[in-house]
Write a structure and sequence with these properties.
The structure is a homodimer.
Chain A: H1 10-26, H2 33-40, H3 44-50, H4 54-76, H5 83-99, H6 101-107, H7 111-119, H8 123-135, H9 141-156, H10 168-183
Helix pairs in contact in A: 1-2, 1-4, 1-6, 2-3, 4-5, 4-8, 5-6, 5-10, 9-10
Chain A binds a DNA duplex through helix 3.
Chain lengths: 192, 192
DNA sequence: GTCTATAGATAGATAGAC
DNA sequence: GTCTATCTATCTATAGAC
């Protein structure tokens, strides 16, 4: 409709890349538009040409993660409730962290991002869906704590210096093992 | 020595309490001295009378946690290296989180605090001590991931909404169970 | 698409009166 | 110990030239 076909050229992607790097290092609140512009060798005004507000920029940075979560949640909710669906969600989250190691860390940690996610789609509806899938219908305290630890551990693993040396495949394998262990999920038949 | 006996009166404690609440809700970077002063019904200048800089205030807020970590690390390092020492450190950390539920969340998450801890004592020397005790001499990837998940899970549990309803004792029990599970530590004989 | 320039708000921090 | 007042720097955001 009113949306011009190609508002997202090369410039837009460059801004998103620089913003992600700086968000991961300094947090969203600790990153100014001046810092982003400086990293690109341009001025703030050039960044504002691509994104009308900082909020819009943050949401654009987070968007690939939201898309991927939506995709695997749609798929997981296709199978009946139970351990299989739970495992599918866990695998989806671990895939996500492996694909976007620095990006996922932006989600947790900064309360400003948390507020953004509580007020904007797709996060507003996505967050409860994921929580519900992991917790089940009537979670006991043990399950609540396990889910909390998995969420925190997955999201912060992208910026944990101790894990920086691990390659994606190793990180994926060990995160999945730990998450399944916490949830009491058996390793599937095909795994080593 | 040169330290006057009572620089820390009631006013100082009030500032620390308000700062902690706001740090836990908005993060350190997201909390201004104006917000702290407003919560106390005073002006910024009154806060600056108690703490010369924001950095000094943040370090003062974190101090009780540093003291407690120092104490249990000193005790744990008294016993020989091995599963017993490891378990002692884990118990110390879980105790800590239960004692200072909101406070521990300030430690992780905000990169500004991370930088502060890398440059100021006791954190500068304390952080590697804890990491070394949890990781052991030659940690494999599995151990690294488990330790990372424990660290993230413990520290963020204080602000996780899903856990807000749990009382301290329940939180303590379940965090300890999960942490031991991840590390392959057997529950001690006396536990239920 | 990028720039200069600037507005308006707010940050951390200080000076000095009471 | 708290205040008013102020400084300086930086923040988000906008206007308008090139």
């Amino acid at each position: 409709m009113a949306r011009p076909v190609a508002p997202r050229g090369r410039g837009r992607e460059r801004v998103l890349g620089a913003a992600l790097s700086l968000f991961a290092e300094h947090g969203v609140s600790g990153t100014s538009l001046h810092m982003i512009a400086e990293a690109l060798g341009v001025t703030k005004a050039a960044v504002y040409h691509q994104f009308r507000t900082k909020e819009e920029l943050v949401l654009a940075v987070l968007r690939p993660v939201g898309d991927e979560i939506t995709a695997f949640m749609d798929a997981a909710e296709g199978c009946p409730d139970g351990p299989e669906r739970l495992d599918a969600v866990v695998v989806g989250l671990v895939d996500l962290v492996s694909h976007h190691r620095r990006l996922t860390a932006v989600l947790r940690g900064d309360p400003a991002v948390g507020r953004l996610m509580r007020t904007h789609e797709p996060w507003r509806s996505l967050t409860p869906r994921v929580a519900r899938a992991l917790l089940g219908a009537a979670p006991d305290p043990a399950r609540r704590v396990a889910v909390s630890m998995i969420g925190a551990g997955l999201m912060l693993s992208g910026v944990e210096p101790q894990l920086a040396g691990l390659d994606d495949a190793t990180l994926h394998r060990e995160l999945l093992r730990s998450a399944r262990l916490l949830l009491g999920l058996p390793a599937p038949a095909g795994s080593a």
